[in-house]
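Issue 218. Parser rejects a valid record. Input:
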Amino acid sequence: MHNTGDSGAGSEIIAMVEHVLSDKPGDWRVSIVGSRENDSWEMKIEGPKGFERSYTVAGSAGEHEPAAIRDLILKLLPSST
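Output the parser choked on:
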């Protein structure tokens, strides 16, 4: 997590991401980078077998909340992992 502001929420988001991916096989990476120009964060998920997804997380839509990040990751992950 980079340039996202609130470090307290960042710690909670990291814990949720680790929990969501803890039972998924393979090497997973999630990066979340904030913008200095607006309230959007760019989230990128990379996983085994070339899996890659990107999503723009909008604060104005409530997507900066840890539970919202968790739900987005669950939707973006392939169902077979």
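Fixed in the parser; the record now loads. The CA atoms of residues 51 and 74 lie 14 Å apart.
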